[in-house]
Each structure stands twice: as C-alpha cells, then as structure tokens.
Amino acid sequence: MPKIARRTFLASASAAALLAQGAWLPAFAQADGTLSVAVVSDPVTLDPALMASFFEIAVQYNIHEPLVHVTPELVAEPGLASFETPDETTYVFTLRDGLTFHDGTPLDAEAVKANFDRMMDPATGSPRASDLAPVTSVEVTGALEVTITLDAPYAPFLQVLSNRAGMMVSPTAVAEMGADFATKAVGAGPYRVVSWTKNAELVLEAFPEYWRGAPAIGRVVFRPISDETVRLTNLRSGTIGLADGIPPQSVGQMAGTDGITLKRSPGLGFSAFSFNTTAAPFDDPAVRRAFSMATDPATIVQAAYFGAAAASFGPIPPSMEAFYDPDLSAPRGDPDGARALLEEAGVTMPVAVAITVTNSPIYVRTAEILQAQASAAGFEVTINQIDATSLITVLRDRSFDLCMSPWSGRTDPDGNMFNYFTLDGPNNFAGWKNPETDDLLKQARAETDTAERADLYRQAQRIIADEAPMLFLAFPETLQASVTGLDWTQWPDGALKLQFASFTQ
Amino acid sequence: MIASTSPSMRLPALVSNRRAVFGLVLVGLAVFGAILAPFLTPYTPDTPDFAALLTPPSAAHPLGTDDLGRDLLTRILYGARVSLSVGLFSVLSALAVGALLGSMAGYAGGWADAVIMRAMDVIFAFPSILLALAITAVLGPSLGNAILAIAVVNLPVFARIARAQTLVVRGLDYVEAKRAMGFGPANILIRTILPNIAAPLIVQGSLLFAMAIITESYLSFLGLGAQPPTATWGNMLRNSIAFLDLAPWMAWFSGAAIFVTVLGFNLLGDALRDLFDPRNT
Lengths: 505, 281
Known about the structure:
The structure holds 2 protein chains of 2 kinds. Chain A is of the alpha+beta class. In chain A, 32% of the residues lie in helices and 22% in strands. In chain A, strands 1, 8, 9, 10, 11, 12, 13, 14, 15, 16, 17 and 18 form a 12-stranded mixed beta sheet that branches. By secondary structure, chain B is an all-alpha fold. Classes of the chains: A alpha+beta, B mainly alpha.
C-alpha cells in the first residue's frame, strides 16, 4: 500500500512539474522519475559480505550504506556512524539516531556487532574476513555505540569500512532469508531492492527512511549491457540515462555530442598482467625484466586507451596523491636492451610465452601490442583468449605464463598492494615470494603517519619495479557518461551513489 | 559408363553460363588474392604501426588501417588464406568422411545403415551454429578446432546425400554386373558407386564451402576461431564493431570480403547444380 501511494504521488508530482514549467522531459525520465543505468555486467551477489567482483561496484552503494563515507576526494567522513580513535588500536563508532534497515529492523549497536560477527565468522566464507583480519573484538558499548579493538595499528581501517566491509545489512533479514539474501539484500542504503531478474534488470526504489533523506530519483533500474557499442547507442537514443564503462576510443567523440555529458577522472585501479613466477620461463627475474623492458606503457596508453589513462610502473596511481611516487620508473620500451638482457641471462631465444586475456576488446588489443613489442626482443608470443568467467580460475590455478590481472582499485594504497604482493596475499597470482616486500607492506599497514607510510610504499614499489612480478601498463581513467538532464557525481573507482543524483530537466 | 555426368564434358557449358562465370570470377579473385598476398602489398598483416592508428583509406593504405595501424587490405588478403583454407579443409574432410559413411550405409543396409544414419541424425538434431560453438568451446579456441567443428557439423549433410544416391545406384545394372563378376563390396563401393554419386556431393560441397566461411567468421567473431593476431575475416569484422563510429571502413571492407566470396561460391554452386541436373540438357 505505501508503495503504491508513493508512486502515485511521484507521478502526479512530476506531472505537475511538467505542467508548471512546460518543460521537456527526456525520454529516460519517465513520469515516475525512473533512471535507467547501463552497467557492464550483472552483479554476482547483492550481499556485501560475499561480494568479490568488480561488477558490484556500480550497484553496491545504492542498496547498502557503509559506516564511513568517502568523498570523491577520498576523504573519510561519518556515514551511518561518526567515529573517534582514543588510541591507534581502538575505534569508537557512534551510530546516528533512529536508523532503520529497509525492512524496518532498527540499525543499532547490536545490529552492527551482528554484521561484524557474520563477516568474521569463517562459516560465512566472506572475503571481508581478510579486510578485517586485524580486528580482535567488536563490543557493544552503548545502545548506539560500538567499540572495535585491533591487534595492531591498521591505517586503512576507515577506508576499509567505507567499502564493502562497512556495509550494514539487516540481521533479521539474513536470518529469515538464508541463501536467498544474496538476491534480495536488505540494507540501509538510499534504495531498496524491488526485483532482480538476472542478466536483465535490477529494479530499485527510493527508501523514504534513508538517513540523508529520500533520494531525489524515485526509481533506478540497472541494466547489464556487456557490449560497449550497444551501451553507447542506448545512451544516445535516451533508452538509458547513465552508462558505466565508456570505451576510451569514444571519449573524443562523446565529448562533442550534444545531450551527453561525459565525466572522466583518474582511476584508482591498474591495468596489469601477472607473470607466473613459479614456472619457466618467468621464474627467472631476468626474463621478466626483459619482457618488461621490451614493452612500453606509453604505447599502451596511446594505442589501447587512446590517451584516457596514465602510464604505470607500479600499483599506486597518481590519484592517491599522498602515496604516488612520480619518480618510480623502470627501463621500458627498449627491445634491443631487452634482447641484450636475455642474451646475458643465457636463455635460448626465441623464448616462447603465452599471454592469457579475456575476450574484452581492450585487453585483446593490449595483448596484441605486447605481442608485437616482445617479439622484437626475442620472445615468441601467443595469445590465449578465455571466457571472462574462467579468468579467476586460471589466475588461481596459475595455469598461465602472463595473464591479465586488472584491479579496480581501492581508496587506500593498502588495497592496491597488500593482497597482491604479500607472501600469502589472495591476489598474489604471480606466486612471488619476497619477504622484504611482505615486511614493508605489513609495516605500512600498521604505520599511521602518512609520510612514513608513503616512504614504506615507495620502497616496496621500487622492489616490485625491479623484480617485476607483475607487468604494469596503465592507470585507466574512470569513464562514465549520462544524458545532460541528469546531475550526478563521479567517484574515482566508478562507484555510483545515486542518492547524490537528480534530474535537472 | 560413368562419363554421363563427368564435369569435364560440361566445362564449355559452365563457361557459357553467365552466373557461373561471375561466380568463378569472384572465387578466383579471393583465391588469387590469397595466393599472391605477399606480392600485392608491401605490408605484413600482423605488424602494428602506432603512428597510423585508424587511418582512413588513402594512397598509402587503400582500404585504411585498423586500431593497431595495420593495413586493412593486407589483412584482408592474408585473411583470405585463412578463410579459404577453413572452407576447403572443413568441406573436404566432411565430404570424404560423409560420402564414405553414407554410401556404406546405403550399400550395406540393415543394422549398419541404422547405426550410421541414427548417429548422423543425432548430429543433425543440433542447430549447426550451436553445435560448432559447443565443439570449439570444449576443445578450446583455435583455427584447427574451428575447422574440425565445421566439418562435424556438415558431416550428416554429405552422409545423407551419399546414402540416398547409393540406394538409387546400387540396384542398377552396372553394379549388379560388377557383383556378378565377383568383386567385393569395398571395390564396388569405391570404384563404382562413389564416382557415380559424386555430382550432387560436389554441388553440395560448393554451397557448404560458402557456409563454412560464414561459420568460421561466426566462431572468430565470438573469439573461438583463429587467435590474434592472425587475420581472419570474421575476427576483423568482430574487431571493427568497437570502431563503427570512428573507423567504419574497418567493417565495410572485411564485411565486403565475406560477402563477395560467399556470393561467388553460391553462384558457382547453383550453376553446378543446374549443370548436373539431367532434366536440364
């Protein structure tokens, strides 16, 4: 009943606005104020405790609200809760008064504790458990107050809680729905889930009790459209109002199209490949160095990203200003030097290697460029195209020589390095064992002084650039576009937070 | 005795058929381009030129360049080698195996007939593209597997034609005569029956050749055919989609190459069918 009443209200309100201003309403904004969003792929799950895919980033913040909010400039601010840190290992969170989940369950200290217990319970199998590894206890210290104790200082903690690990879900709904929770998701975010038809549409409607106030756009529909050309065509025709994942080659053209607003910002992630350091030929650092030397990030930026990226020598992008190392470099784009390195190492040439990529156009293009450049240096390169869904299996089984391992990025440098380069990091697809780097990254995690931390990351990045466990190529920009009648904010990692969006016409 | 439908006797008739000539010219063009590719272009098909990304057609690049600055004409010429060999090898192997199985089934009859033809029916029951996709998905993407998949898909077509024709021929006097002379079934099948049922198989082969080129382009289009940087018309067309707005010539010319060659083989196949048709003399 309230649903119907609300929709009728919105419909009449929009109709009234239309009459009053005599304004033209674009096709995408229907009478009830629906925004259609084209995303690259369907989310895998709507349960933040289980999310492990890149494709949930566009959707997750619309359904779920984290304890901590980050601004587009990556500053941590109070979200559901304000925070205090009496000492380096103690965080006290105070929840806002009167918060509820979509199902009416109160969002209080007990609910927050239940969420942390669930994420840290090995039975849940949550990828959040490693994000929360330093947490030793979560205690309810008041009706709205939770105190979290860590075993050591953990610099990225607030940023971690601004992402999936800080997203609170309704404990009653989790208990009632069981496995169905992953498709229905009851959170405390600006929108609640109306229906989800896999690979077709995810329909959300505004949550009137949202703590910032009900969002301006009443209804949001996420549609997965995997083909980049089809996504653009739909945006141009007005079938959708907002599109994620604009292909870089279209940037020039989109910028000059009437009725379309393109937004670009330096991303947080990287475009990189993992060397398999556990098997020949890339178990030899000299061969990795030679491959890295033969290939040129500048060419990738120009020919694969059409300029919409920055050249990369390591995992920390320029957008993380405090931690970016502009002086980091490695010898690149020098096929003759690479050939000399291979000769010096006494390797028989040509060195046969296979590059594994999914059939995404940009990565196939990148692989072809790498192939051409490495061939000039004495490698014999074949390209293996695999299905996007097999990528994670290939990486985990290490059944590759060189395999794409792109990362969407996190707001803290720890998120771009710890999982990739620590000894047993879950994303250490390269199988690279370097105790010195491992130690530096662990120190950096515990270091709360920004300048000291930046120095630790600088040292770690130098070792990585020299030892080349991964081939870093580019920091792609985040490219999204909307119809001009939509006002919205872009986050560097591509997260869409539509509570901050509205129709302007 | 078997000369009544020999193609060599009808060659003048083939040349006088205008459709056939046109078909022959189009096919000849593709074959000529494929064989002489290195002499027709100064470029190599796989070497990127980062200074010439997405160049429109010009004097230096008559058909323009692709997203890695590779000359499109060169890639189409070298692509003809792949597309034509896919057609040739897949059709020839399907024809050889299909004709043998079909004529054996037709000649032997009984349980051998039932087993072979039901097996063919199973293959036939799947939509051909779906079956080709399934085979390449299981075996892994490569050109060889694409050829194999297309051959398997076409197998029952040849087997059915061969069986039907064998049923007609096996009761004829010249087969009875050979049997009476004491020749074994293998000899009769290969020396007498197969030559006499060749005509409709050849016609079907030329038509399926065109289909095979299209199927390969589908498979390459889905990333299941030849792997990059090998140029095939299908993967060139697939690659062009991302650049439809920026560089439409990429799609025009690789699409045109498929169109022209397939048209050529279809015209040729139609003309051959008319020629071999006994009612048409």
